[in-house]
Amino acid sequence: MTVIGHFVDGSMRDGASGRTLPVFNPAVGASDTSVALADKVEVDGAVAAARQAWPEWSKTPPLRRARILDRFKTLLWERADELAETISAEHGKTHADALGEVTRGIEVVEFAVGAPHLLKGEFSENVGSDVDSHSIRQSLGVCAGITPFNFPAMVPLWMFPVALACGNTFVLKPSERVPSPALKLAAWLAECGLPDGVFNVVQGDRRAVDALLNHPDVRTVSFVGSTAVAESIHRTAMANGKRVQALGGAKNHAVIMPDADMDMAADALMGAAFGSAGERCMAISVAVPVTDAVADALIERLVPKIKALKIGPASDPSSEMGPLITGAHLDRVRGYVGRGEQEGARLVVDGRDFRQDRQGYENGFFMGATLLDHITPDMDVWKDEIFGPVLSVVRRRSYDEAVELIHRHSYANGTAVFTSNGDTARRFSQDIEVGMVGVNVPIPVPMAFHSFGGWKASNFGDHNMHGMEGIRFYTRMKTTTTRWPTSAANDVQFAIPTLG
Ligand code: NAD
Fold first, then answer.
1. pTM of the model as a whole
2. Is there an atom of ligand 1 within 6 Å of 384 CB?
3. ipTM above 0.95, yes or no
4. Which residues span the membrane (predicted)?
5. Where are the domains of the chain?
């Protein structure tokens, strides 16, 4: 059995801990590879390589750093198909969806190539008589990234291109369920001329994460994953004096107003609820039609579309939805559907019994798309993040009731409103207490030059990912005030200096 290893100091490394975990092909439901799980010694080795590479990399002119990333960007476009295939093989998402993820990741590299402009400092002449002042943004050192299974390339790409462009070095700990894409990214960066040690990948589980969180040379921690882990990583990293951004789970609601284009809303919900089998932190998992008439009109449009959904492996280009990530997760999602039924939901379409009958994929972790109606806020299917192809309908009587429902939830990652009324749209985007808002856009993932991040239990820390927030997170500011001896006053001052 092949064992997927690490990438440290410019080369692939076998695991040395003796601990491994099987890596599944979720479409087949079987595993013929495993991943090495790093222990503390291996993590320490990767951090040491990154620490050693940092002084020279941080002093490399920003333009030269950017040119390496520019080559990397070109190479990513050329090899996007290959990367997408690697993603689909371990994650299960369709090829088109994996290509979309790669594209969104490349956009962050495109943004990072322009970092020299953003790293320009500020200069003030004559802040006092013959005294000048300037501020610069400097790198911090070794940055760590800990990423989830659902975007094996895009989420790491939210982090390291910006970190590297700012002059930091990086240690990435990808999800143990999708270990290969990160290694491809590391090898391709090296091919583009990135010096050894600047970007490293350690595979592993909680033990590797703990080693990173407790390592004194790790200066920043960027995490994306479930809320319980995000909260604990935020707490530990803060206690250890590190800068931290930790993005957590989600439960995203789409409000459908009576004046919405109902066909547009139904199409948007299909992609947003069932794309990537609902395993997206920006998936719409709750539809909130305002009035019963809107709910009925929406469900009438959704049901035939759900029944016609093409569920299959990434190897079939006509597949619209792939499998779930593991057998255990499939059982968990099916369990939520059963629980919803027990709690009083109406099961409009039940995807639990879907069976993939094409040869070779019979044991894949596939589930059919599911639609639950008459969900209420006291039900677990509303409260919890299910992270599967399950769309819940919560009927509300007015706009205010819909907004109140969204505000009642602990998660606040993304949301959307479907309406043709400009006043409603403006009011919603101003008032809603959620980090990312779509107006007739179901998955409002900000572009690379904006920043990604939710509110409340969906995000811990002060900075969002990429865009200017990313530049701020991966740099620290230094301000120098300068006076030359010819203009210096000779007297000693004991009061706080005032320059004006
Ligand atoms: P996860 O929290 O199980 O794992 C994320 C990472 O943390 C992995 O690298 C994993 O190895 C590590 N990890 C897991 N348990 C840990 C522990 N106890 N201590 C330390 N490290 C641990 O998440 P997942 O199942 O891989 O991903 C799905 C979750 O990620 C969902 O909740 C989804 O909403 C969330 N997510 C959020 C965003 C966002 O931007 N907010 C984006 C993508 C995914």
1. 0.97
2. no
3. yes
4. none
5. 2-248+458-480, 252-439
